[in-house]
Write a structure and sequence with these properties.
The protein is an all-alpha fold and 220 residues long. The protein has helices at residues 2-19, 34-37, 49-57, 91-95, 108-121, 123-126, 155-158, 162-171, 185-219. The protein has a domain at 106-205: Orthogonal Bundle (Cytochrome Bc1 Complex, Chain D, domain 2). Helix 8 (162-171) packs across helix 9.
Length: 220
């Protein structure tokens, strides 16, 4: 019995000594299937076609776009199910005109957040006043030579349906790139609601002025 106690005491002492050793193994050694253990973290829509081509030259077949027909967790339903048009095609861009904003009217707090999202993501080009005169253009003195779209005061954009705006913000249009990785679906619709509210406010303020001008002309 005494021998067993001594043996257990020795084993316990050795265990404590080994566990307190400074020689701690901090590297796991070889990893089985490292591509599954350490995935390449790319934001959806954030990789350009040039970057995909560069990855392909290294033997990496990668697409950072969602599988067609899938709906991510927490997504608005009904979602925006139109895919990006292939080069030279505008069928889905035209079809997006019929898609309605699924969000209810924004309350005052939501409108403040929509204003913030617009200023952070859109104001640099389209301007805080939505007049196309943001810091990048700066009245022609900025680094961008062409004036961005004037969202308020240009009939083309004031009459553009919300669904078509959403298509452009999601997939990009002309010089504007996609904002799908910067703004989630609800945030994109919020920004579009904000733009439409500013367009409507500008239209209402311009209507009395046009009416008074017509009445003045009639009196003459």
């Amino acid at each position: 019995m005494k021998k067993i106690s001594i043996t257990l005491s020795i084993l316990f002492t050795v265990t404590i000594f080994v566990s307190c050793s400074d020689d701690i193994r901090r590297k796991p050694g070889r990893v089985y299937m490292p591509d599954m253990a350490y995935s390449r973290a790319y934001e959806t829509y954030s990789v350009t076609e040039e970057m995909k081509d560069s990855l392909l030259r290294h033997g990496v077949h990668f697409s950072n776009t969602p599988v067609p027909g899938t709906i991510k967790r927490g997504e608005l339903v009904p979602g925006f199910l139109l895919a990006k048009d292939e080069a030279g095609d505008t069928a889905n861009y035209a079809a997006s005109r019929s898609i309605q904003n699924p969000l209810p009217a924004l309350d005052s707090m939501q409108m403040i957040e929509a204003n913030r999202l617009y200023l952070v993501n859109c104001g640099i080009c389209h301007g805080p006043a939505l007049d196309g005169n943001g810091p990048l253009y700066k009245g022609g003195d900025g680094p961008f030579p062409a004036k961005p779209a004037q969202l308020v005061g240009d009939k083309k954009y004031e009459s553009m349906p919300e669904g078509q705006m959403f298509y452009s913000v999601t997939y990009g249009k002309n010089k504007m790139g996609s904002y799908a990785s910067q703004l989630n679906t609800a945030q994109r619709w919020m920004v579009i609601s904000y733009i439409k509210s500013k367009q409507q406010a500008a239209g209402k303020s311009a209507a009395p002025a046009a009416g008074s001008a017509d009445s003045t002309a009639a009196k003459k």
